[in-house]
Amino acid sequence: MVESKEFLYPVKWLSKASAGDRVTSELRMRIISGMIESGTILSENKLAADFGVSRSPVREALKILASENIIRLERMGAVVIGLTEKKYAEIYDVRILIETFVFERLVRVDTNELVMELSKILEMMKISIKYRDADEFSYQDVLFHETIVRSINHSYILMIWDNLKPVMESLILLSMRCRFKEKYEDFTRIINNHQLYIDAIRTKDRDLMIKSLHVNFDDVQGEVEDLWMAQQMLSKGVEQEND
Q1: Are 79 and 39 in contact (CB under 8 A)?
Q2: Cα(194)–Cα(38) distance, integer angstroms
Q3: Average confidence (pLDDT) over 51-62
Q4: Alpha-carbon dihedral of residues 103, 105, 109, 113, nearest 10 degrees?
Q5: Phi first, then psi: what are they for 106, rounded to 5°?
Q6: For residue 218, what pLDDT is reported?
Q7: Using CA atoms, how far apart are residues 76 and 45, in angstroms rounded to an integer?
Q8: Using only C-alpha atoms, what is the Rg of the chain?
Q9: Second label for 122, Cα 20 to 30 Å away, from 40, 53, 137, 158?
């Protein structure tokens, strides 16, 4: 179950984390990666022994993972549900909706500081590629998109983002580790795709933003225009109400 001493979640990301956070992050990674398979029964006592902690942080971790719908709580433990393809697609539906919503807000405001901040993060991503540091690249990748989302200071959008982030972060980390090993040359394209985001925000060009969504979310390309159109209709409705 979790006997392996190799931790999937980056230890350097957990320097100030509580024991419960550390157990949560590692269990999430092992479940999403498939190391702990769907249907596996998780025992509080066994997990506490494997991680070298008391049952309290394990119980805390299981409650969080249950709220993310990747396990189901049982008496004195849980059963692993895992992350299905449907859930994976739904995560990216929400990501696209959030980022299109944010872009619609950004077209109305000064984005010079945001563009400069994103450009700095993009440079850090390039350095991570140079040194083949998949974990650091993943951290900067999440930070890039989070910086865009946080720039509009919308409390409820941030709440959705923060709830989505742990699972999304794990997915990105696993994906980037695999790409660094098997498709290292693909990172030129990834950097160019992120530059498109910056250019779209700088120029406030909706067509360019749609293109950047296409190339960054290539597994859900067919849904980008539908989600974008729905977001624009919602924005117009809000504007009409405010008038």
Answers
A1: yes
A2: 34
A3: 95
A4: -50
A5: -70, -25
A6: 62
A7: 8
A8: 19
A9: 158
Question: Quick check: 62 and 43 in contact, CB under 8 A?
Answer: no
CA 210/CA 125 separation, integer angstroms:
22
Inter-residue contact 93 to 227 (CB < 8 Å): yes
* Tens digit of each residue's pLDDT (9 = 90 or more) over 210-241: 888 878 776 444 444 444 454 445 445 444 44
CA distance 47 to 57: 10
Query: Distance between CA 173 and CA 29 in Å, rounded?
Result: 9
Q: In what order do the strands lie in the sheet with 77-80?
A: 41-43, 77-80, 71-74
| Residue 236, SS3 per DSSP | helix
**DSSP strand E in 105-217: where?**
none
The number of helix segments (H) and strand segments (E) in the chain equals 10, 3
Mean pLDDT of all residues in 118-136: 97
Residue of 50, 63, 74, 75 lying closest to 24 (CA atoms) = 63
Mean pLDDT (the chain) is 87
Tell me which residue of 34, 28, 33 sits closest to 13, measured CA to CA: 28
Taken as a whole, the chain contains a residue count of 243
Collapsing DSSP states into helix, strand and coil, what is residue 98? helix
Residues 6+ apart with CB under 8 A from 26: 2, 7, 8, 9, 51
